[in-house]
Specification:
The chain is an alpha+beta fold. The chain has a domain of 115 residues. It is 15% helix and 24% strand. The protein contains three helices and eight strands. It has a five-stranded antiparallel sheet. A three-stranded mixed sheet has the order 4-8-7, with no helix packed on it. The protein is globular, with a radius of gyration of 18 Å. The two termini are 34 Å apart.
């Protein structure tokens, strides 16, 4: 199905990848979690009352799809040749492009230490017509990602990069 014609609900209905499966894709669609606004209002009221009554404040995770940081969680749709493959995360509130450090895929194995210079990788974002969701891709071509954790890391793969099994 053409990703530009898909609805948000169609993206949400995709299966999640296995937690530790390596996946290669050429673009990524950012899928913000839906938040129940009534739950958010209740949380705000309970938080205000807890401060006023000097009680323990409620945890933000009690509001569905909000991260412990208080930011909304995101899921990501892996896309290959304009075909959606699967959902990748669901629990992340941050996306790190080319890793948390920004040094690229397997930078420690490649450089041995923090590099002084890294090859440039141009990133692009557009907005899908039907769903209004954002799609991100690298001009290098293929991409991969790490485990679905609190922070989600994506990497542009170079021509010679071979994704290795994820270790945990």
């Amino acid at each position: 199905m053409d990703i530009n014609q898909m609805t948000r609900r169609q993206f949400e209905a995709l299966p999640h990848r296995e937690w530790d499966k390596i996946i290669i894709f050429d673009s990524l669609i950012i899928l913000p979690a839906r938040v129940n606004h009534w739950s958010l209002v209740q949380y705000s009221i309970r938080k205000t009352l807890a401060r006023f009554l000097k009680m323990k404040e409620p945890d933000v995770w009690e509001v569905g799809h909000l991260h412990d940081s208080g930011f909304r969680c995101m899921d990501f749709v892996a896309v290959l040749d304009d075909e959606p493959i699967c959902l990748l995360s669901g629990c992340s509130d941050v996306i790190h492009i080319d890793g948390i450090s920004g040094f690229g895929y397997q930078w420690l194995e490649r450089y041995g230490t923090a590099p002084r210079a890294i090859p440039p990788s141009a990133w692009r974002i557009d907005c899908l017509a039907q769903s209004g969701l954002l799609r991100i891709w690298s001009t290098r071509g293929k991409m991969t990602c790490d485990l679905p954790l609190s922070s989600f890391e994506i990497y542009a793969l170079g021509r010679n990069d071979i994704p290795v099994p994820i270790s945990y």
